Amino acid sequence: MSSVSLQDSQGxxxxxxxxxxxxxLEIHVQLNTDSKLFSGSATAYGAEPNxxxxxxxxxxxxxxxVVNEKAIRYAVRFGLAVGAEISRETVxxxxxxxxxxxxxxxxxxxxxxxxxxxxxxxxFPGESGEKVIRLTRAHLEEDAGKSIHDLYPRHSTIDxxxxxxxxxxxxxxxxxxxxxxxxxYMRQVYTLVxxxxxxxxxxQEGSFRCDANVSVRPAGSQTLGTRTxxxxxNSFRFVERAIRHEIRRQIRLLESxxxxxxxxxLYDAEKDETRPMRSKEEANDYRYFPDPDxxxxxxxxxxxxxxxxxxxxxxQAKVNRYIHDWQLKPADARLIAGDKACSGVFEACVSAxxxxxxxxxxxxxxxxxxxxxxxxxxxxxxxxxxxQRLAGLLDALAGDTISHKIxxxxxxxxxxxxxxxxxxxxxxxxxxxxSDSAALEALVDExxxxxxxxxxxxxxxxxxxxxxxxxxxxxATRGTANPVQLKTLLQNKLNSSS
Amino acid sequence: xxxxxxxGLHAIGSRLRAGELSVADxxxxxxxxxxxxxPLNAVITEADETAIDAQAHIAQQAITxxxxxxxxxxxLIHKDIFSTRGLRTTCASRMLADYVPPFDATVVSRxxxxxxxxxGKANMDEFAMGSSNENSFxxxxxxxWDQQRxxxxxxxxxxxxxxxxxxxxxxxxxxxxxIRQPAALCGVTGIKPTYGRASRHGMIAFASSLDQAxxxxxxxxxxxxVLSAMCxxxxxxxxxxxxxxxxxxxxxxxxxxxxxxxxxxxxxxxTETGIATAVEATREALEALGAQSLPVDLPNxxxxxxxxxxxAPAEASxxxxxxxxxxxxxxxxxxxxxxxxxxxxxxxxxxxxxKRRILVGTWALSSGYYDAYYRRAQKVRRLIAGDFDRVFGxxxxxxxxxxxxxxxxxxxxxxxxxxxxxxxxTIPASLAGLPGLSMPAGFSQGLPVGAQLIGPHFSEARxxxxxxQFQQHSDFHLRTPEAFT
Lengths: 498, 485
Fold this sequence. Notes:
heterodimer, A: 498 residues, 3 domains, 10-stranded mixed sheet, 3-stranded antiparallel sheet, 15 helices, 18% strand, elongated, B: 485 residues, alpha/beta, 11-stranded mixed sheet, 17 helices, 39% helix
């Protein structure tokens, strides 16, 4: 199947491919409000099954929904952040279908007059590219409960804790052309909603889920091919693999003279394949109609203005500031700004430094600190070293008190002992670089004297021995010699004929 | 019947507060009358005796300590559509035959707060769907004026019990006429307030955009008392109006001088003669009290029944989806799988009329039919509301018949569509969300006739004022079915 090798190492489709993929995403963003969309029940994850269920959530007769204003505010905040139009009057509609984890027999969602209309997200696929993905809409809706089918052999069980949790469903236009673009888009939306503080971003707990609509068409064609919908993919890696796999499957099908069936498919991560869930022909007629229990929600200027004022700095603005004001490399700037916690640590570090050095801070965070986080499988929010203590380390590095290599050791020690500052560790362990040139000179003399043969060889042209002398002095100083100073000294001594 | 219960809330309440009667006396009297009314089959569930005694005790204490309000210690029956904490609430359906709510409807809790004592739950049409009270899982209610005849519906039990004199007042709900039509057929006063005036929280939904709680009483003044206690904004109902409680008794004594009364000639032509005559006589009586009348027209009102029977079933089809046999309510025995659980639980749990409306509503909302039915019916609804707006630029209230005919015989209207026509004069106000009141206005063939008052939004006080003034000069509301005297 060499003809369908779709992507090069950067995730771009080779231009020679006769096929073009067309992808649109529907992302379900769980809003981190304290209570549900229409009831006062808590929304905390992982509680005892059915412990966060009000009479409304269980759909007892006579219960009525009352909309959570915070969810409205969060949706407005999202709309403002993507430059969308905020509907001044937004309507909740009932989506009717029967399922045991949907207690009312309908989901309260939105059809006409969604709260957020239009907007766009800029993505940066690959190293340098930039592309605008248009949004169709974002609407508010309530989540369903959970059906658990594998607890008992002959029964399913229902947990309604999640039933009624607020979501916004962010619907993109079919503007993406590769799995890599789809993932870049998904990451960008993720970064945005976590920055806005409207979603906790916990992928394992299902706070951020994605459905992908995928079709292929001959390159250059303007008409859309038949699409399939990939359901409920909740990690970036799986989205990329599922879409890539689905594109490949559709091309293979079309090239062998077959046709794509419009259907919903599930991605099986273990087998790395998609398989049909149910065909659209059999799908429910949801019989949407405006929910008569909820009047249209009016959103006034005051609410919009307040949200606008409270809007935090958006990730893109952060990236620009890091690049232009702080001279970070674009890729580094995007990496840091892409994670809310990371950018928080970064900015706190920079401002806590005696002489702020964003480039040094960025280099360390993305390098050594990232490496330790990976080693311990931690995310930035769980960083064991406070930005202030990191700043102490960065100060020592910036002031040449310690070398990069010693810095790594100090970082490991900071990681392990929550009380010590970098200065404490450096002092206690005598790790400060020998800036006393007389002392260093004495040491150099000692080393040269002890290795007379090597000195002679060097002077006879064996240049490689220079590093041997550096190593010997470093060993004697336990790495605390200032490497630049040391090299200068050595050069002077070795090159002088005495 | 009970002579005491016929006296009404004002009279009984004064005697309670004067210490002439105890709450226990009043409650015992009402309970005796309820037992005498058993042939009417108007009660589904009686409240537990200890619960009644506890409420009565608290009320008596309040009265003794001088904290008694106008409703303290007075008995009532709730339509079985209102959730009552710890007291079975069936909505007259097999589906909920064993359902005991864990909370009170707002209407129930507010009246309890006012000191009223709940004696039980009144029979009704299943899920409030019907105009004859023949669609109850617990059997039909009989009209106290003629037990071979229907009391009207869906709040038939409430109307029959007040007419019989078993309780001074009872709650009801009105979606397309379910308070006004049985009030007319049983010869009592019944008022449906403006949509949004009384909370729907805890009232089992039939058609959410139309359902509205209200009250039956012998006297308009009693209805005013109860309505004052049960209405007002409820944060648990998003469609409830933001305004607070209103004292509907404040304007009862206002003279009717200058009142402009609109008559719809077209409607009078389409009622039986006895009813048209009674409405005419009511107009003359109001004119004698200083009102003036003029003919008006609601050109789109003829479309109301058709629009209603699209909209109400559409909402019902969705509202009743929660009765699925999964969490509460009727569940079929030994379901083979999920589909079987749904199919049999619902087939067994719902009666014929409920199933009919679920099917009609499901169809009206289906893809491809939505525009032709649901959307169009909404348009008709707006047109009718517009008609009323225009008319209320000319008049203060409308005086109209409530029904095209007096109480009909049980089983007489087997064809559902002919039964739907019983609500032809009540549905227009429902679609427009307007308050409507039915008051006793005469007799035809020995059976009660009601006259309907319809006013603009939030004109309940005015409607009650007109009815009260009319009742000061008429005695139709004071008559009692002969069989029970």
